[in-house]
Amino acid sequence: MTEELIIRISIAAMLGGIIGLERNYRAKEAGFRTHFLVALGSALFMVISQYGFTSGMTGSAKVSFDPSRIASQVVTGIGFIGAGTIIFQKHVVKGLTTAAGVWVTAAIGLACGAGMYILATAATFFVLLCLEILSVLLNRFGTRNISLTFTAPNKAGIATTATKLKQEGIKIFNYSIKEQRTAEGSRYKVTLEIKVRRSQYEQKMAYFIDEFAGVSIESIE
Questions:
Q1: Burial profile 110-119: b = 16 or more Cβ within 10 angstroms, e = fewer
Q2: What residues of the chain score a pLDDT lower than 50?
């Protein structure tokens, strides 16, 4: 019996590790170790909930035994790990896909702990399929949020820059303007939150650097 349980948690760790390797390849916040441990821990909790308390309950008719109770707490507890991978920065939410991946990895671990190897393997396949297809589609059709900071000698230069960006099909969804007074006179520091297509990212970076006369770009994030 012990050998069977070791096989369950081993398969869970292997499937979680496969998902983690894909996340490592994409340089995401939660990688191999996180997914490996989540799947392993979930499988172990399932095994404990099924077999860890049976010896103490034999011969007692008044004790109710529900093996799903510990497993259900895994679903709730994994939310804390998932929340740690979600970042809200500059009006953009990042890490939701990684958090969902950790969540489904826990479900795969629970399935392995219950001995449902084929179901867990199929779920792992669909997770990888989803992540890879999503990556390809995002690189081709998705957009990337960029923080563009530049200085201009006057407000006319700001207006000209914004107009050229819009003509290039670049969406400006947030901006801030600060006046800086120096010995040479006033200059304006502008921060724009913009969106560009991922497939055009490198082209737009070169465009930002070369296009605007009289405008000095301080940073592109």
A1: bbbbbbbeee
A2: none
Q: Which stretch of DSSP H or E encloses residue 180?
A: strand 171-182
Helix then strand count (H, E) for the chain reads: 8, 6
Question: Which of 166, 148, 134 shows the shortest CA–CA distance to 216?
Answer: 148
Terminal C-alpha separation, the chain: 55
pLDDT of residue 145: 72
Rounded to whole angstroms, the Cα distance separating 88 from 102 reads 18
Which positions ≥6 away from 50 have C-beta within 8 Å?
67, 113, 114
CA dist 20 and 17 (Å) reads 5
Angle among Cα 81, 87, 93 to the nearest 5 degrees reads 120
Query: What CA–CA distance (Å, rounded) separates 193 from 176?
Result: 9
* CB-side neighbour CA atoms (13 Å) of 97: 18
Contact 39, 4 (CB under 8 A): no
Closest C-alpha among 219, 203, 221 to residue 151: 219
Contact 195, 145 (CB under 8 A): yes
pLDDT of residue 175: 78
